[in-house]
Amino acid sequence: MDKDNENSFQVYRQPITNIKPDRLISLDMFLGYTEDPPRSIINVFDEIAEAESSGNKQLKARLKQHYLFYFTPCAVVHPVRNYQSIKEFTGLLVLDFDHIDNAPHFKSFLFDEYKSIIAAWLSPSKRGVKCLVKIPIVKTIVEFKEYYYGIAAEMEVFAGFDPSGQNAVLPLFQSWDPDLLSRDNFDIWTNKGGKRSDFDLAPAMHALKIDVTDKDKQIIAKIINTGFDHIIDYGHPMLRSLCITIGGYIASGYIAEQEALQMINYEIETHPYLTKGIAGYKKTAQWAIKIGQNKPLMLNNRRHG
Prior knowledge:
four-stranded antiparallel sheet
């Protein structure tokens, strides 16, 4: 990609039927505009959030398609937005999650867990999360999709994952999140994957059939205790990671969800750092345990049957 245009991509004027890009904008401009848009755009976002909460999907779609700019962060095109017109790729891909609970928590979790995420923000409905991920600058659509499938193999475990981001010229609508998360020191996602017939938006949980021993229970208790011992500061990221792991063991049948929550809540209530926000940390723990149950885990002393 041209060095002068590195970290830049195209913006399109509304409505969505317009497929001719307006101009290139920098990544920094995009992030600034997402974090602090004009008042007129904020009013549109307020209406979109109302439409989402009332279940009026037609109004929500109309507002987005007629009043918001949109972008194509993954590829630069000329003269119009389609595969045939792709001139170069930008080294970015988009992750999209919609209709999820506790979207702010989920946004923070993704950003903390995946250092290749350059930025994460809430969607206009406030019930979705969108992310920009750094990948190598590719030369072909096939290679772009390989990187997308690679990260999607991990993301599909989360309810609300939308696999449409495999389309490199898919429109990304304006959003507004004053608490947008971004980093300058990011990693590059380098894992590739293969095409799947489809990605489950809410994967079913399948508990593994195992005979749980007393030793297993002791190991789970030790994992919880050790996890809390390692929390010295920055409580939410470490608590989320720990509880997602415990959720995986719950899904496999090692421990009941209620029992795990009782143990974790006790640790929160007695932890010297976490006691400053007990209610918030308990909410984070409960959410993370639910998320973790989408991906059953086996203890290292076990083999799959």
